[in-house]
Every structure is written in C-alpha cells, then in structure tokens.
C-alpha cells in the first residue's frame, strides 16, 4: 500500500469508481448510492481546481494501483480562512483497520504544515465510532455538535464538529 498525492488526469476515473463503491459500503458518507452525479471529466476538473488552490488530496493505493482510500483537505479560498482546510476521507470497507487512515492523516498533516495550513477540520456522525476514535487518536477535538444534521435510513443522525490546530515546528503524530 502506498500513500501519494492525487494526479487528477490519471486518477479521476479510479477515484470515482472507489467513491461509488464507498457509497454502497457505508452510510457514513454524504451521498447515497445513485446520488453521485460526477463523471470522470467533472471530477477531474474539480480535482485540478482544488489542487491548484492549494488543497491537499491524497490517495492510498494497492500495488495493482487500485485506490482503496483517500483524504481530501479542501483549503479555504478567502484570505481569512486560507489557513484552514476541511477534510473528507473514506477507506474501502475491506481495507479498514489496517492503519491506512492513520497513514493518510499523518501525510496530510506533514503537507499541511509545508503549505502553511494551521487548522484542519471535519465533521463525523456521532455513531461512527471507528472514525471518531481515529480522529481523536490523531489529535482532533470535538468542538461542537450538529443535532439532526443528516437524515439516513429513515432517521436523523447527529454529527460532531472536530478540529485540530497544527504548529509548523511540531512533528506530525
């Protein structure tokens, strides 16, 4: 397994296929199966734009170049929030619990420091205990709650706001 930066032109199709699989494997992603309307071309364009803006997008891939996980840290565009990035991450079900999430977060933090990003933030569904444990292990703190934030499988689910301040001189977790 290898962690590397996204290459929009080469990776868009494989990342999109992986996202479609995640939509089927978990209720904890934003989109339901069939709701994702991205085409390879649309996603490639979004990836290029995000990377050119200073966002960090990393993939975890197998030796066969199958994308099995990703982390997308969307950097703020206005100057007042340029120091921060909002994270979305996902790992294929059959690869969870193997340290891939930890590796993605460590590399993200290393690159964020290099780019002058000092705040990383995300939201997580409160009942997604494995993800919550990972984020807390990586130093993220609960900063607030979003009651009834999402409606999934006939019920409302709450989310936590989580964040981490990183200092350039500190080593990554």
From TrEMBL:
This is GCN5 family N-acetyltransferase. Pfam families: Acetyltransf_1. It comes from the Bacteria. It comes from Anaerocolumna cellulosilytica. InterPro entries: Acyl_CoA_acyltransferase, GNAT_dom. GO terms for molecular function: acyltransferase activity, transferring groups other than amino-acyl groups. Keywords: Acyltransferase, Transferase. The keyword Transferase applies.
